[in-house]
């Protein structure tokens, strides 16, 4: 069981690293990774010009059991929105905000799918 958990965490970290590199390549600045507020966590908070983007990263080793983005449910969205609201208040952010999902499948090379405005 412990090895399954550590493998899951390793897979998630690999996916987050690929997602961050992807965003940097698209001209975003990474402000925070793994931002926590209460029980919620935002995988990546990025900025591009006057747009603040909260990114949920979902990673799978393959698409055998569905696409990674299918794992983002209503409960996860609600937790992400709560954490984002706190970050916005802390930073006194006054500009646009967007919520994205980056789906990473760890094939060779990795498949990265960026879903902008995934939810509100």
Name given to the CATH architecture: 3-Layer(aba) Sandwich
What is the class in the CATH system?
Alpha Beta
Into which percent range does the helicity of residues fall?
25-40%
Approximate strand percentage:
35-45%
Count of alpha and pi helical runs: 2
Outline type:
globular
Overall mean pLDDT stands at 90
Alpha-carbon distance between the termini? 36 Å
Q: Give the helix/strand class.
A: alpha+beta
Instruction: Report the major sheet.
Output: 5 strands, mixed
The count of strands amounts to 5
Secondary structure layout plus pairing:
Blueprint: H1 2-25, E1 29-37, E2 40-48, E3 51-60, H2 74-91, E4 96-105, E5 111-115
Parallel strand pairs: 3-4
Antiparallel strand pairs: 1-2, 2-3, 4-5
Structural account:
By secondary structure, the chain is an alpha+beta fold. It has a single domain (2-115), classed as 3-Layer(aba) Sandwich (Trna Endonuclease, Chain: A, domain 1). The chain has 2 helices and 5 strands. It has a 5-stranded mixed β-sheet with strand order 1-2-3-4-5. The mean pLDDT is 90.
Short description:
GO terms for molecular function: endonuclease activity; nucleic acid binding. By secondary structure, this protein is α+β, with helices and mostly antiparallel strands.
Features:
35% helix; 36% strand; 5-stranded mixed β-sheet; globular; 5 strands; Trna Endonuclease, Chain: A, domain 1
């Amino acid at each position: 069981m412990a090895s399954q958990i550590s493998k899951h965490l390793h897979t998630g970290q690999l996916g987050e690293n690929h997602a961050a590199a992807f965003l940097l390549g698209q001209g975003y600045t990474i402000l925070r990774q793994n931002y926590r507020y209460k029980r919620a966590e935002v995988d990546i908070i990025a900025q591009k010009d006057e747009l603040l983007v909260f990114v949920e990263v979902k990673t799978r080793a393959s698409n055998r059991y569905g696409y990674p983005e299918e794992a983002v449910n209503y409960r996860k969205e609600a937790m992400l929105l709560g954490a984002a609201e706190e970050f916005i208040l802390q930073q006194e952010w006054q500009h646009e905000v967007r919520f994205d999902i980056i789906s990473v499948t760890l094939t060779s090379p990795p498949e990265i799918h960026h879903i902008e405005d995934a939810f509100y």
